[in-house]
Amino acid sequence: MSRLVVQLAKNAQRVLRCILCSMNTPQKADPAIYRSLRENALKLRPNSLRNDAVHAVLMDWNVGNGTATVLAAADGSASIYLSSGGGYIGGGQKFPEIREAALQAIQVATSLLSQFKKTETSNLPAEGEVFFYLTNNTGAHLAVATEVKLEAGTDPLGSLGEIMQQIISEYRLKFPQK
Q1: Exposed/middle/buried for 39, CB within 10 Å: 0-12, 13-18, 19+?
Q2: Which of 11-20, 80-89, 156-165 has the lowest mean pLDDT?
Q3: Within 13 Å and on the Cβ side, how many CA atoms surround 26?
Q4: What pTM did the predictor assign?
Q5: Is 65 helix (H, G, I), strand (E, B) or coil?
Q6: Which of 2, 85, 95, 129 could form a disulfide with 30 if both were Cys (CB 3.0 to 4.6 A apart)?
Q7: Is 172 helix (H, G, I), strand (E, B) or coil?
């Protein structure tokens, strides 16, 4: 993994931690929304795709005081859900860069199918772990990575982590913190 990608990943992680820290407004953000959006994404099974197609890929990332989930869907949708109840939705429809990153994530996940195992659970990662879920007509599938190996470029899921980080970076560019 290039130094630039590692730096982008570290910057994205810092940004997500800052977002999670700053979202202490329970009257605006409801953590139940996170659980609902994430569970719906894990159940995504559009009929319009062929049987073996990847419908969606999720990256669940423990960011210390919560979890960030990055979603990329086969239609180019991309979202970021925060366990605090906040996040970003709809960027893939509005911004071509986010849409393209989402579509690339689906392609990369498809190429890594052998790394995923079918799962009936939807657990969240512990500190230092990154969970990748993909959905297709046969259900949800899980692959687990560690932040250390992803940052070092030694995890087979590194390319998927990079493109999911790209979604975070594109959202950050489109919606800068004030």
Answers
A1: exposed
A2: 11-20
A3: 1
A4: 0.82
A5: coil
A6: 85
A7: helix
CA dist 46 and 177 (Å) reads 34
Q: Angle 160-79-97 (CA atoms, 0-180°, nearest 5)?
A: 70
For residue 59, which amino acid is it? M
Angstrom distance (rounded) from CA 142 to CA 131: 7
Kindly state the helix (H) or strand (E) to which residue 62 belongs, with its residue range: strand 56-62
Band (pLDDT 50/70/90 cuts) for residue 152 is very high
C-alpha–C-alpha distance, residues 119 and 143, integer Å? 10
- Taking alpha carbons only, the member of 38, 8, 46 closest to residue 151 is 8
